[in-house]
Amino acid sequence: MPYPEKLSPKLQQKLTENTFGISFPSRSGCQMRFVRNGKDLGGFYSYKQWGSVNKAVEAAISKNRQLKALYPISKTNRKRKPKPDASCGFNGVGFREKLDKRRNKIERFYWASFKRNGKPAIKTFSLGYKEFSADQQLHAYRTAIQFRKEWELLDSEMKEEKYKDWQNKRLY
Q1: Which domain holds residue 110?
Q2: Of the listed ranges 6-10, 42-46, 147-151, 154-158, the one predicted with least confidence
């Protein structure tokens, strides 16, 4: 739904730059959404209750900022201690076996999650469809960990190209 008619141009500009989780589902108020740990901490801000459209939107923005200060998200998005039953024991690195339905074969690979241009991405280090040695598996594992650690350290300055020929190079 578009902005309400009585919303000031200054607030419209502010919401264009950053939505603050605010939407306008009805003519009687705005909705501010803020979810952390599966709980919706936002709420509905009635124009009538707050006295005007602008005051309700300003209250929603203020509450959103308060919640962001109370429940921040780290740069690497959820830096936490890995779960004991995780496949690798490192944040952002895992092992997966995937069935390729076309070939009816299982592909095994390690993956490292990161962000490319601010969007989530995954880099895979495939062991292929055939049998592999323990050395090949250890090499893929160490390379995935090295990739993730390098991304955490360098972020956007990291050169992904150097991992192109990872199977023939030791980058760790």
Answers
A1: 93-168
A2: 154-158
